[in-house]
Design a protein that fits this description.
174 residues; mainly beta; 9 strands
Length: 174
């Protein structure tokens, strides 16, 4: 599903169907500044009306051109079902009507969702139980300290011991 080359004051949507649970890639370029998005997209699950993903300023990075051009390129898993892709924009700075320099990938101004076929990253290693918990057979507990370590008392600079004066060098023999 795709809504691109979006103009000013747009409120567009497009429905798409996933026949099975699918990892999708979301590629969106919009306008945002001061931690707010002004041209942005989101995905809604049609049956419940629940927003399952939304382009927020914190997930974006600079898209080239003017500083307010923002880009997100991410993946997520969507369950089998019907979804609606949305795009909303304010009254300025849009495809072919830029008020600052356009983003590098200007033809994709808007939002695109497509099946992501790249291999999934490997799963993280399993987390071992804490070694101090009883019954852990592989890792012995760390040694316990019987006394806390000594903490040196703070000394005022006037009371601090001074290093010894350098010894005088003996006179060379003649």
């Amino acid at each position: 599903a795709q809504i691109t080359r979006a103009g000013d004051s747009e409120d567009r949507s497009e429905t798409f169907l996933l026949p099975r649970t699918t990892r999708v890639r979301i590629y969106a370029i919009g306008e945002g500044q001061n931690r707010e998005m002004y041209d942005y997209g989101w995905i809604e699950e049609v049956k419940s009306g629940t927003t399952v993903w939304e382009m927020t300023y914190g997930m974006t990075f600079h898209a080239g051109g003017g500083r307010k051009n923002r880009l997100v390129n991410t993946t997520m898993i969507l369950e089998k079902g019907e979804y609606r892709l949305h795009w909303q924009s304010d009254d300025s700075h849009s495809y072919r009507d830029w008020n600052v320099d356009p983003p590098e990938d200007e033809a994709y101004w808007g939002i695109t969702v497509y099946r992501d076929e790249t291999p999934a990253p490997p799963a993280p290693p399993a987390i071992s139980p804490h070694p101090e918990l009883p019954g852990h057979p592989d890792i012995p507990p760390p040694p316990r300290q019987t006394k806390p370590p000594k903490v040196q008392k703070r000394v005022k600079p006037s009371e601090a011991p001074r290093p010894p004066e350098p010894a005088e060098a003996p006179e060379p023999e003649r």
